[in-house]
Design the sequence.
């Protein structure tokens, strides 16, 4: 099966617009400063983006440029960048960076891969990323996501990221070189994850060869009874969850849908969703296997409640007929049949905060 790489990458570039922006890209957009991009890239190796982001902000407050970085000791640097992965090693690299740049490049950040790899703590991956992101020059940054996904697609057959970079240099159209890392990192973190990728909600699942992949399992509704709209429904609640998510968009980036599927509840009531349904990705707005009832606040990014349910409610009441509270999206009441009782509990107070 041969994939259409243009189609895959164009579709995914569009898809990841709704995803979290990788931290190095964010710093690039915010600062356009090669020094900060280089330092953030060094910090980001084997470290989660949230951790890199916080550590970079702390470090740049003390050392916004090379001159001020040179004044910090290795111990001070280690304290500032803790808890990024291998922070002691990285503090050592950062301590040596000003002198190395002065000695080899007259205090300037070089803009080619070979020169950058002469700097402490800078391998090909970091160098390629800096060249692409900081200088907007053709370079292919191959990290584990790019290496892994390109092999899953069968676009390359390689054993190491270096082999993948070399193979991509031969066949990947130049227009994708600079952006491929940002696209596949975002996609690899959110959907095509290293362990049990979310093929069930992947936009290119129909065309993906899925080489060597074990997709995650999405629990299906066991009961065959159908609701009025034809969706499969259970007819009694056995597991009901109430969860103050403190921002559905934020929790979505931390694997909200995976957690919900793991919980395997019949009904999930969320508080503090802080989003309108139209601001959410399709996978959250129309959670597979559930019907969703939304009652967001009128004010964007504030309060709001929602209920996902596998069982069609007997009725749903939005608000409590007190306008000053209802505009905040605080109460959503629904009636459900519980267990196998023949008489429904009605009405059943529900999502409220
Ligand atoms: S279908 Fe699965 S393996 Fe293929 S790209 Fe999508 S998430 Fe990855």
Sequence:
């Amino acid at each position: 099966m041969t994939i259409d790489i243009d189609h895959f990458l164009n579709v995914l570039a569009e898809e990841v617009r709704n995803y979290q922006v990788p931290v190095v890209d964010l710093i690039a957009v915010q600062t356009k400063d090669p020094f900060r991009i280089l330092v953030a890239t060094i910090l980001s190796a084997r470290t989660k983006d949230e951790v890199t982001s916080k550590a970079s902000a702390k470090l740049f407050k003390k050392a916004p440029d090379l001159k001020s970085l040179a004044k910090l000791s290795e111990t001070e640097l280690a304290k500032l960048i803790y808890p990024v992965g291998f922070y002691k090693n990285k503090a050592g690299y950062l301590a040596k960076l000003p002198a190395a740049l002065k000695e080899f490049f007259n205090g300037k950040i070089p803009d080619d891969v070979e020169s950058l790899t002469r700097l402490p703590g800078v391998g090909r991956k970091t160098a390629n990323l800096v060249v692409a992101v900081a200088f907007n020059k053709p370079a292919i940054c191959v990290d584990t996501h790019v290496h892994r996904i390109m092999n899953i697609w069968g676009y390359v057959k390689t054993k190491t990221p270096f082999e993948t970079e070399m193979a991509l240099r031969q066949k990947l159209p130049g227009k994708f070189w600079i952006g491929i890392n940002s696209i596949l990192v975002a996609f690899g973190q959110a959907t095509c994850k290293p362990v049990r990728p979310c093929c069930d909600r992947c936009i290119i699942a129909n065309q993906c060869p899925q080489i060597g992949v074990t997709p995650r399992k999405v629990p299906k509704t066991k009961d065959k009874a159908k609701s009025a709209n034809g969706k499969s429904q259970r007819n009694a609640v056995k597991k009901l969850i109430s969860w103050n998510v403190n921002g559905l968009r934020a929790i979505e980036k931390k694997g909200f849908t995976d957690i919900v599927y793991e919980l395997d509840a019949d009904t999930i009531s969320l508080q503090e969703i802080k989003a309108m349904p139209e601001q959410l990705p399709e996978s959250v707005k129309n959670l597979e296997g559930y019907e969703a009832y939304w009652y967001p606040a009128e004010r964007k990014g504030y309060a709001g409640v929602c209920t996902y349910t596998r069982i069609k409610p007997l009725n749903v009441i939005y608000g409590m007929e007190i306008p000053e509270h209802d505009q905040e999206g605080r109460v959503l009441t629904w009636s459900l049949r519980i267990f196998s009782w023949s008489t429904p509990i009605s009405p059943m107070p529900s999502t409220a905060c």
About this structure: The two ends are 51 Å apart (CA to CA). Strands lie at 240-244, 267-271, 291-295, 305-309, 315-318, 331-335, 348-352.
